């Protein structure tokens, strides 16, 4: 992970703010609200992707620990359930946005 994700989020926020202000000045408040909501959804998808990468890394770490120490099996299984929960939330968010 690098710092470019911060710049991407800031860029989406800046573009969303500019588009929203232009639409509000032209008396299109409903479309401005939709544009702001679209920007928020884009940023949320970016953040969910980062969280998924984090859980992939944690899953790999615990898989290595589990191979060394079998007592971590319950912790590893809990992590897998949490990972499945976030994956389901990501796909549910995608289906809601469509």
Count of alpha and pi helical runs: 3
**Counted beta strands:** 0
Approximate shape: elongated
* Main sheet specs: none
Poorly predicted residue ranges: none
Rounded average pLDDT:
82
The proportion of strand residues reads: under 5%
Secondary structure category: mainly alpha
Distance between the termini: 28 Å
Give the total of domains. Answer: 1
Key descriptive features of the protein:
elongated; mainly alpha; single chain; 0% strand; 98 residues
What topology does this entry show?
Elements: H1 4-25, H2 29-68, H3 73-97
Helix pairs in contact: 1-2, 2-3
Write a brief caption for the model.
Helices cover 89% and strands 0% of the residues. With 98 residues, the protein is mostly helical. α2 runs antiparallel to α3 (73-97).
């Amino acid at each position: 992970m690098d710092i470019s994700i911060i710049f991407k989020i800031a860029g989406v926020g800046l573009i969303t703010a500019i588009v929203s202000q232009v639409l509000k000045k032209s008396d299109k408040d409903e479309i401005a609200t939709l544009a702001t909501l679209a920007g928020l959804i884009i940023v949320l998808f970016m953040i969910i992707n980062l969280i998924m990468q984090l859980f992939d890394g944690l899953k790999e770490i615990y898989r290595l620990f589990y191979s060394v120490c079998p007592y971590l099996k319950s912790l590893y299984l809990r992590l897998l359930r949490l990972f499945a929960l976030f994956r389901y939330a990501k796909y549910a968010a995608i289906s809601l946005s469509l």
